[in-house]
Specification:
The complex is a heterodimer of chains A (344) and B (285).
Chain A (H helix, E strand, L loop, with lengths): L1 H13 L5 H19 L4 H27 L6 H18 L5 H23 L8 H20 L10 E2 L5 E2 L2 E2 L4 H22 L2 H11 L1 H6 L4 H27 L1 E2 L6 H14 L5 H17 L3 H5 L1 H15 L3 H6 L2 H5 L5 H4 L1
Antiparallel strand pairs in A: 1-4, 2-3
Helix pairs in contact in A: 2-7, 3-7, 3-10, 3-11, 3-12, 4-5, 4-10, 5-10, 7-10, 11-12, 11-14
Chain B lengths: L1 H31 L6 H17 L4 H22 L8 H23 L13 E4 L2 E4 H23 L1 H11 L1 H6 L4 H23 L9 H16 L5 H20 L2 H18 L11
Antiparallel strand pairs in B: 1-2
Helix pairs in contact in B: 1-5, 1-8, 1-9, 1-10, 2-3, 2-4, 2-8, 2-9, 3-8, 5-6, 9-10, 9-11, 10-11
The chains are: A mainly alpha (344), B mainly alpha (285).
Chain lengths: 344, 285
């Protein structure tokens, strides 16, 4: 009892204090809900927005790995791409694209693949170094891209185009507001689930692992198993994202599962602010919108990837907490965990 | 028999290329504990230097000689401005070097306009020995590699700089207390590693087509070699490079080439997974 009351004062003291993160989260949600209606007569902007929402999921999945469990994954696109190829092949060979089945299946595929990779890279008698894991994921993505680019059945270097439209019953989703609604629903659901996850007891263990992996291992936590679980969950999210992306673009190619797209996800997340959930979403929105606006200027379009590299370098060197770090204090970014209601 | 000799020769040339690339990466990793994810792009930069000199009408030789110098200077500049901030945080270093690699790769891609360029061998043709034809250029690559390995070994084992390097590797703090400037040594090491990458890039570009994406392939193979061989020793990365290079040259004869590369990665990763300390585990050098 004394322990609970001992923990109570800081919570009570903070109650009523204005917190920035929830405000930002609400603002972004409101924006994502309202903006499409303002843009209803600009279909190309709706398409852009749908892409942003779908890619936010990919950035979120990277954040779950790096920001919340300290796994540097240069291979998130691997799960993204495999899910994209999955829905394309199911559409082509089975002529089936009901979203209630294909989206969960894509998540399952991404998650299973991530679990396999995690079992290989993370689990085992000897704990791997973080460099090895980072490099392993990079190699996985690179090898997959090479493999797919040389495999005729999946269209080799040309990829698969004219993916069967995502459907629900008789209704087919083309680019536009209804597809956007599906994507946004997916993002909100995944976001809510992640929010619960990272503030749960599991999230607390993950925070401990980030702080001091050895100590947590000493306490008896099987650190690598925790990491593998989160990595698999992140794989599921990436899979969902990849399936939606495939349906939305109507195309999937080898570059969708290579290190290039994986790096883009890294940049989205770090630019927005890793270690928070809204950070990757903000980063994706900022970078994709900037890219769209600047694409009209020839000189910038050609060297846009260079600019992205510079952004990554600057963020890593000078502003590791990203855009959000400018507005949100470290205390709020780290936050509190577990049973807050009990403490009250 | 003739086929076996020729095959062995090609394999040796390929291994030499790998050793050249890996040596630079291994030296930096052992010395400073930093895995340089931009190493593949330093190789690319070396290759690009040769392309530039060839395009300017000077032929390939000036580029070949300039490449190690140019890339070494680039490496020096990078170390002084950026890399030195990362010594305390190896994981952030990985991200930072990756970003540097990305920048270099995309600049070169922009300059090349996304095309593949082929560059002629500075010395073409073949010579015949015992009835078997050998490519002159590949022989030069093998010879250069041998010289570089020998030179690096002598530098590390026999010279006074090498003594300081080994001292700083063993115990950086004690080395600093003895008046050895580790900061200067690190800059030197990084420059040296970068110059080796530049040389490797210049030597191999006639064998491969120049495109912005060659870097990542060599990065992956070189990384595997260093991990396979073990960080911290001189022989380790060289042995690892021999293993990876040999595997990469031999496997395409056994399985379809599409599968060969991923298979090499898988085998090497599996070995590293089982034996994380690498072939040669002597702590740090």
């Amino acid at each position: 009892m004394t322990a609970t009351t001992g923990a109570a004062p800081p919570v009570a003291a903070r109650r009523g204090a204005f917190r920035i993160l929830p405000a930002i989260e609400l603002a972004v949600l409101a924006l994502l809900l309202v903006v499409p209606f303002l843009l209803a007569d600009r279909p190309e902007l709706i398409t852009l927005l749908t892409n942003v929402v779908i890619l936010s999921l990919l950035a979120l999945s990277f954040d779950l790995c790096w920001g919340f469990s300290g796994i540097m994954s240069f291979g998130q696109a691997l799960f993204f791409g495999v899910a994209g190829y999955g829905v394309a092949l199911v559409g082509r060979d089975l002529e089936f694209s009901q979203l209630w089945a294909t989206l969960p299946l894509a998540m399952l595929a991404g998650g299973a693949l991530a679990a396999l990779l995690a079992a290989f890279l993370l689990l085992g008698r000897k704990a791997p170094t973080s460099i090895f894991v980072a490099f392993g994921t990079l190699t996985g993505a690179y090898a997959a891209e090479r493999l797919v680019a040389g495999w005729q059945y999946v269209g080799a270097g040309n990829g698969l185009s004219a993916i069967k439209l995502m459907a629900f019953g008789e209704y087919e989703f083309v680019e536009g507001l209804d597809f956007y609604a599906v994507a946004l629903t997916a993002l909100v659901l995944v976001y809510a689930a992640s929010r619960t996850l990272v503030r749960s007891q599991l999230g607390l263990v993950l925070a401990g692992i980030r702080q001091n992996e050895e100590r947590l291992a000493f306490f008896g936590y099987r650190v690598q198993v925790f990491k593998a679980v989160v990595f698999s969950l992140a794989g599921m999210v990436a899979g969902l994202s990849g399936a939606l992306y495939g349906y939305h673009q109507g195309f999937t190619g080898p570059s969708n599962l290579g290190p290039g797209l994986s790096t883009t996800a890294v940049i989205y997340c770090l630019f927005g602010g890793s270690g928070t959930l809204i950070g990757p979403v903000l980063g994706t929105v900022a970078i994709e919108v900037l890219s769209y606006v600047l694409a009209d200027i020839d000189a910038i379009r050609q060297f846009w990837p260079v600019l992205l590299g510079v952004v990554l370098l600057v963020v890593v060197t000078f502003q590791p907490t990203g855009l959000l770090g400018l507005a949100v204090s470290a205390r709020e970014r780290i936050g509190t965990y577990g049973a807050r209601k009990a403490a009250r | 028999m003739e086929f076996a000799v020729k095959f062995g020769f090609d394999m040796l040339a390929f291994i030499s290329v790998m050793v050249l690339i890996v040596l630079g990466l291994g030296v930096i990793a052992s010395m400073m504990g930093i895995f340089n994810f931009a190493h593949g792009e330093l190789v690319l930069l070396g290759a690009y230097t040769v392309y530039l000199s060839d395009k300017a009408g000077l032929g390939t030789w000036p580029g070949l000689i300039a490449a190690p110098v140019v890339v070494g200077l680039v490496g020096f500049g990078l170390e002084r401005t950026i890399i030195r901030r990362f010594y305390r945080t190896p994981i952030i270093a990985m991200l930072g070097t990756y970003a540097i690699g990305l920048i270099i790769r995309e600049i070169v891609r922009g300059l090349l306009g996304g095309h593949y360029k082929s560059i002629p061998e500075p010395v073409g043709g073949a010579f015949s020995l015992g009835g078997v034809e050998f490519s002159v250029w590949r022989s030069i690559i093998i010879a250069t590699t041998l010289v570089v390995i020998g030179g690096t070994y002598l530098l590390l084992a026999r010279s006074s700089i090498g003594l300081r390097v080994r001292g700083a590797l063993e115990n950086p703090m004690l080395a600093r207390a003895c008046g050895i400037s580790t900061s200067r040594l690190y800059a030197l090491t990084f420059t040296f590693g970068a110059a080796l990458a530049g040389l490797a890039g210049a030597l191999i570009v006639p064998l491969y087509q120049l495109s912005a994406d060659i870097g990542i392939r060599f990065l992956v193979q070189a990384f595997l070699s260093v991990m396979l061989g073990g960080v911290g020793s001189f022989e380790g990365p060289v042995l690892g490079a021999a293993a990876v290079g040999g595997l990469a040259a031999w496997l395409p004869w056994v399985v379809t080439p599409v599968l060969a590369d991923p298979l090499v990665f898988l085998i090497a990763l599996a070995i590293v997974r089982v034996r994380p300390q690498g072939f040669i585990a002597v702590g740090r050098l």
